[in-house]
Design brief:
The protein is of the alpha/beta class. It has helices at 16-26, 39-47, 55-66, 81-91, 112-118, 121-133, 142-150, 190-206, 241-251, 272-279, 290-293, 309-317, 320-337, 340-354, and strands at 5-11, 32-38, 70-74, 95-99, 136-139, 158-160, 179-185, 210-216, 232-236, 255-258, 284-287, 302-304. A six-stranded parallel β-sheet has the order 2-1-3-4-5-6, with helices on both faces. A six-stranded parallel β-sheet has the order 9-8-7-10-11-12, with helices on both faces.
Length: 358
């Protein structure tokens, strides 16, 4: 039996990205212990550091205490990011930097606060340094890797795996007695929601029994929907990733919406929402966006041009057989190609490339 192995994870928070790409793939593997340091915890460590002790020394002290076999930085760009990178290199520890979004060029439609946060020179430098000096820079998509290279980032050892999202299929619930459809979205998706809004309005108008639910961290329900009263519902909340998946399954929507504006920033995103909806048993209507065309091919979702939401959404809402055929195809694909076991094997290969064989 191999000796227990500790992985030290650096992340802004216990985020969905960290859950998808590290915590869930390694869950249940014997002999693996994951220690996490969030941005909040590291900022507090820096604040409480003894006088004269710099960040590099603090990082070395923590690494000596935790004694990890590998450091995994999940898109981390906060306090001590470069210190952990430098200390790991000095100590000969494998250091993996994972990136699933273009945080070097956050677009204006994500909101001024988010743009200001990510475009701070120190955060950009932390990202660049980790991509250039990590044992492996692990990118979720080829488009993202290629864009980082185009920006002049000299990535020493880039790696892209075959898949960039995975969720094991959850049991199907009973056939829904309601005609409730919904959209799960974080705070940067206001412009995406606007794309689908004509379809949401048309669906509610053409199907008097239909209801719409908006969940996630978007701040407001669009004012255009207020007139539908109790037929629309907005739940703004932040919950753990596993709880989010179970909540999707419990809601048993007849359609999950995945609108996405097509621009250089979103072309480096992942198809995670399609995988999540499908795993929860929800048929998907999505933007006809490059990131969805392969995974949703051959009827695994309905892909919609920007101008067609007003006709496509109410039409699919009224077609039970089309929705059932769609989710059956999608679940067969997710079960075969986007399993957690496959993402685990991909992650372990990244570890091996970095210098750790489990």
């Amino acid at each position: 039996m191999n000796a227990p192995v500790t992985i030290l994870a650096l992340s802004a928070s216990v985020s969905p990205t960290l859950a998808i790409h590290l915590l869930r793939p390694l869950q249940g593997l014997p002999g693996i212990n994951i220690q996490m340091l969030t941005q909040e915890a590291l900022a507090q460590i820096v604040k409480n550091a003894p006088p004269g002790v710099d960040g590099l020394s603090l990082a070395a002290m923590i690494l000596n205490q935790v004694r990890p076999a590998l450091v995994f930085s999940s898109r981390y760009n906060g306090a001590m990011a470069e210190d952990f990178l430098a200390a790991s290199r000095r100590m000969g520890l494998p250091f993996v930097f994972h990136l699933d979004d273009n945080l070097m060029e956050v677009s204006a439609d994500q909101g001024a606060e988010k743009v200001a946060y990510y475009s701070h020179p120190k955060r950009l430098q932390a990202l660049r340094a980790q991509m250039e000096q990590a044992s492996v820079a692990y990118f979720s998509t080829e488009a993202l890797r290629d864009r980082m290279l185009e920006l002049g980032i000299e990535v020493a050892k880039p790696h892209v795996g075959p898949i960039c999202a995975a969720v094991d299929l959850l049991p199907l619930g009973p056939v829904s007695a309601s005609l409730t459809f919904g959209y799960a979205a974080s705070g940067g998706h206001n412009e995406d929601l606007k794309l689908a809004l004509p379809g949401i309005v048309a669906a509610l108008e053409q199907h008097p029994q239909a209801r719409f639910e908006l969940i996630g961290s978007l701040e407001h329900m669009p004012p255009e929907l207020v007139r539908f009263g109790e037929r629309v519902k907005h739940e703004r909340r932040f919950i753990a990733y596993d709880d989010y998946l179970r909540d999707l399954q419990r809601r048993n929507w007849v359609l999950g919406l995945t609108p996405l504006c097509d621009n250089p920033f979103t072309r480096m995103k992942t198809y995670t929402k399609w995988v999540e909806y499908t795993a929860a048993g929800l048929p998907v209507i999505a933007s006809d966006h490059p990131i969805y065309r392969d995974c949703c091919a051959d009827g695994a979702a309905l892909l919609v041009k920007d101008a067609d939401w007003a006709s496509a959404l109410p039409g699919l809402l009224g077609d039970v057989s089309a929705r059932q055929a769609m989710v059956a195809k999608a679940r067969a694909r997710v079960g075969q190609e986007y399993s957690v076991a496959r993402l685990r094997a991909q992650l372990l290969e990244v570890f091996r490339l970095a210098g750790l064989t489990l």
